[in-house]
Amino acid sequence: MRLAGIDIGTLTCRLLIAKAAPDGHLGELHAERRIVRLGEGLQRGRGLRPEAMARVLEVLRAWREVVDAYRVDAEVVVATSAARQATNREDFVADVKRETGFAVEVISGEEEARRTMLGIRSGLPAGVTSVLGLDIGGGSTEFILDCPGRPSLVRSVQLGVVHLTEAILTQDPPTPQQTRAARDLVKQAVQEASSHLGTITGTALVGTAGTITTLAAMALQLPTYEPVRIHNYKLVLATVADLEERILGCAAAHRKGWPGLEAGREDVIVAGAIILRGVMEGFGYSECLVSDYGLREGILLDLAARLRPKS
Description:
By secondary structure, the chain is an alpha/beta fold. The protein is 44% helix and 21% strand. It has 12 helices and 11 strands. Strands 8-7-6-9-11-10 form a 6-stranded mixed β-sheet, sandwiched between helices. A 5-stranded mixed β-sheet has the order 3-2-1-4-5, sandwiched between helices.
């Protein structure tokens, strides 16, 4: 089957068109991602801003043509934290349907985590079985404890890079007081997740999505994004701490052009580094295995499973 999946996040939109084999393997045909900031300003109001929705619609109109050109058998479009929180999400969903024909499913944090783990699992190296999945998004962060023989446990917390930047890290660069406040908030979120998840002994921390893959690209100083080098890269705590210190030491304008730093993330990467470091320290992990697979792959794997004939 040829399938198309779109993930409309708080910060980024992602498109994946792939062939789904009967064994569940995805063969990528086309992939794109655009930073569109759907959740911009959502903390100050409760609705999605017209200009933010317009940016997403512009991208989706272009992707409608791409998807149609591939003559896919089925498509799935999901929206996450920003749409979940917004009071005008139904208007947004209706606008997308009218303008592009895409039917958007606004998924819960728990469902987002479940499908993210499907994507993560599809790309894990041999020997990695018990994992704590970490998905740092623009508006929320998902923790997924997934161990063989046990039901998965999920905790979604309202803490993402756009949320943290707009709510606390408002100076450029952030003041020491703002940095401490952000770290305290991350610590509280980690404690909340930890109390829900229970013991994580014997698990590997596996991080997915743009914040973590960008930090890995920065650690590797990649002039252009290379998925093969990013996927299953081990990001150690000392490197994360060094990156955080370097990022906090200058303004967003000075970060532009840094090797590995995706254009458009110059401001929110501060929050991303603080969150990842806080999670690693809070849970006691010395390294994070980076996955280039995540929700975008998971929504296609889920769609393929639903379309596959039942035996």
